[in-house]
Write a structure and sequence with these properties.
α1 crosses α13. By secondary structure, the protein is of the alpha/beta class. The radius of gyration is 21 Å and the shape is globular. 44% of the residues lie in helices and 17% in strands.
Length: 360
């Protein structure tokens, strides 16, 4: 099968899904070409800015770079002639590209990465597409998206890249007693600050990006963390070097205009962090809010219900090294079936093949 994969438009985080499936599909023997949408967006950002300096009367709206960058996807399809275009995330892709693909009779399949946090927006995007089918990253979102789009919908769990995520020996600069990486949403910040202030002498490291919520920055986090994005290579080293890797699934979506926090009602599935930590052979301490955790890892991942239990579990597992290491080995074994290549074999490729059959 010839598959053209469109990157999400971001240079971090969801771009890992793009590279992960591109490598997995190539390893399976498919002919794959990648469209680096994030690089196109960066180019048109600079190009439009430069052109505006020379032509003050040139009209360029906020969507101009997305329109220009996405049209290049259609040109890529003309050159590569794929059986299908797989769009990762899709939230930054201009609809113009999909209309052009449909005019060339090339079906597009959408792989969502932001369920259930942005299901309403994703449902509208998938329906207007036009897309031939949709894969979603949370099982709880399947029924909603089927009703919202009237398209074939399949659940595709998050995953990890087996070429990147595996146990490695690391130097002292990556070692810690407790480590957390993730976006510094307020609900996570409260937990992490509690760990920092009740620290009984262990080394606690935090890193991750800081979001703007309701147009405002979250201030003060520089005192307790390294507020920056990490690429997967560096993140792997931090996971491999820690005794306890924390994983807290957020519920917050953002804040409304009045500053009130907005939360999802529920979620079923794990985020990618759960798989990546396990694949690195690290011990994981995770919130107990996602039913998929027990389904996938059984008792090999420790859980907590609230901040008080989190503090107690950190203290307990730092004192019980043999138990901690045994659980890490067990979770490493269980995660082997969750790589990008395994997901492609069992879910992604069969779904695309079914879409192509329906198209015939």
């Amino acid at each position: 099968m010839r598959i053209l994969i469109a990157a999400p438009g971001h240079s971090v985080s969801t771009v890992d899904v793009y590279t992960g499936y591109m490598n997995a599909l190539k390893a399976m023997g498919h002919e794959v070409s990648g469209f680096d949408y994030h690089l196109r967006l960066a180019f048109y950002d600079v190009a439009i800015e430069a052109w505006l300096k020379r032509n003050e009367n040139f009209k360029a709206g906020p969507a101009e770079k997305f329109l220009l960058a996405s049209e290049a996807l259609a040109i890529e399809a003309i050159d590569f002639v794929p059986d299908v275009v797989l769009v990762i995330c899709g939230l930054a892709l201009h609809r113009r590209a999909l209309i052009l693909l449909k005019s060339m009779l090339i079906p597009a399949v959408l792989l969502l990465t932001e369920s259930p946090y942005r299901d309403y927006e994703q449902g509208i995007m998938a329906k207007k597409g036009p897309y031939a089918g949709v894969l979603t990253n949370d099982k709880i979102s399947v029924d909603y998206l089927r009703e919202a789009t009237d398209l074939p919908i399949e659940y595709l769990p998050h995953s990890y890249d087996s070429t990147r995520h595996f146990p490695v020996e690391v130097g002292a600069e990556y070692q810690s007693d407790v480590y957390f990486y993730g976006t510094w949403w307020p609900e996570r910040g409260k937990l992490m600050e509690s760990l920092r202030t009740h620290n009984n002498g262990y080394q606690f490291k935090i890193s991750g990006p800081v979001p703007r919520v309701a147009g405002r920055d979250i201030v003060g986090v520089e005192e307790v963390m390294t507020p920056r994005l990490l690429d997967n290579a560096e993140l792997v080293r931090n996971y491999c070097g820690t005794k306890i890797a924390l994983n807290h699934h957020r519920t917050i979506v953002g804040k409304d205009s009045a500053g009130e926090e907005l939360h999802i009602d529920e979620a079923h599935s794990l985020g990618p962090r759960a798989y990546e930590i396990a694949a690195c052979g690290a011990f994981q301490l995770c919130d107990d809010t996602r039913p998929e955790l027990q389904e996938t890892f059984g008792d090999s991942v420790a859980t907590y219900k609230d901040g008080q239990e989190l503090l107690a579990k950190v203290e307990y597992y730092l004192r019980h090294e043999d138990e901690r290491k045994a659980m890490a080995v067990a979770s490493l074994h269980k995660v082997q079936a969750c790589s990008f290549e395994k997901r492609a074999e069992t879910v992604l490729v069969p779904f695309i093949e079914e879409i192509l059959t329906r198209g015939d």
